[in-house]
Amino acid sequence: MQLTLRYQAMHSTGPADNVEANIVPTELQADLNPAETALVLVDTWGEHPIATHRARTSDITVQRIRPVLDAARAAGVTPIYAPSPAIAATYPQWTRWASVEDLHPSPEPDDGWPPPAYRALAGPYASLQRAPGELPPDSAGKPPERWHRFRTIHQAVAPEPDDIVIATGNQMQRALRDLRLVHLVYVGFATNICVRFRDYGMHAMRDRSYAPILLRDCTSGIETRETYDGLQITSAVLHDLERWVFTADSQEFIAACQRP
After folding, report:
1. How far is Cα 236 from Cα 240, in angstroms, rounded to an integer?
2. pTM of the model
3. What is the spatial order of strands in the sheet that 23-31 belongs to?
4. Is the pLDDT of residue 35 over 70?
5. Per-residue pLDDT, 219
6. pLDDT band at residue 114 under the 50/70/90 scheme
7. Is residue 28 in a domain?
8. Residue 122 within any structural domain of the chain
């Protein structure tokens, strides 16, 4: 599969012009073997407590990720679902590359630090408390309310019985090794959180010596009041990610999958 990849590179000739204005988009033509390629679907949930994010990501999932998934399957690309540990564990496929430690994790010992008063934001640390109405519904050790829970992978891209569902980066590494997969094409949410920072996210897999690729129109970050109208957080994160990993366009990926 021939695919145009984009990254941000410093185009300078020496110390005199080594400035931020010379960090510019750069493209290369990559040749990916479908048999060595995985489509990694991160947090393509069917639910989300933030209504606007849920509506936007649902549209992206149906209109963009589903066609990408269909084209990937037809081309022999391997789907890998990474829907967060709690959701992964609800799918029987999750156990295929699970270790004993994955199935029966040992609790981390509590060494007592930070101290109890700091954890409770009490006493000398009380000034760090947020206003009560600002606390998220799953904070302070309380279980999330039903409307705030994530429960399923979006039905438009639901895994098939023989698909891979993983909960951790170690599981994904075992699957990639056993199936001899090296190219990781990412889709999913949220660009600024899980896609980027999960232990199976793009930075973590880059640290494992992979060269991840994000389909930039198959993702979205969680925005704020100041950024929502223009999706500036998503745009800024994509630009920053391109310093470290590649991005590509979904329509070009589909065309590459379909090209004889």
Report:
1. 6
2. 0.91
3. 23-31, 2-10, 246-248, 213-220, 183-189, 37-42, 78-82, 164-165
4. yes
5. 98
6. very high
7. no
8. no
